[in-house]
Amino acid sequence: MSVNGVTGASDVYSAYTTQSKSTETKTENTASDKKTTESAGAVYEPSKEDKVTASKKTYKPDTNMVAKLKADAEARTAQLQSLVEKMLTKQGQTYGKANDIWSILSSGNFTVDPATKAQAQADIAEDGYWGVSQTSQRILDFATALTGGDPDKIEEMRAAFQKGFKQAEKTWGGQLPDISQRTYDAVMKGFDDMAAASKTEE
Question: Per-residue pLDDT tens for 38-58?
């Protein structure tokens, strides 16, 4: 056997070994890539879940808005009550509790001086604080602030409003004035609009 034959065999063996290692390396790389892809897929799935969770809206009461609306309503109610008290006191009428004031007003057994009448007319005008537009909007804003805008609570808020309206009629001693009836209708329409809007969003 010649030296060249041995050398040639060695070269062939060396080439075969290199090729074999190269194939093994490629196989390992392919397996590694596959693992990486699988790992990436495993990471991708939770991100999908996170996205779904993030899109689910949570509703929280707006306590700042509720407090602001309550404080405003209490201040304006006290102002109105004071106005009525002064008017009744001038006429020598006596009253005990606040409810008695509304009973006297509903009876109509009183006279109104020009200044009080002007103030009352301004307050119940279309754009006045106690007018239909502003009063109904405050009630709807209060309901929205209490529920955080949760559409599932619309009917609950509607029922609470209806209950409050009936209590007001009881305190008044019968059917409330026309402005109150129109305010009631405006609030009910507002709840209807909110319900319709929530269905459209769904």
Answer: 444 445 455 444 444 445 677
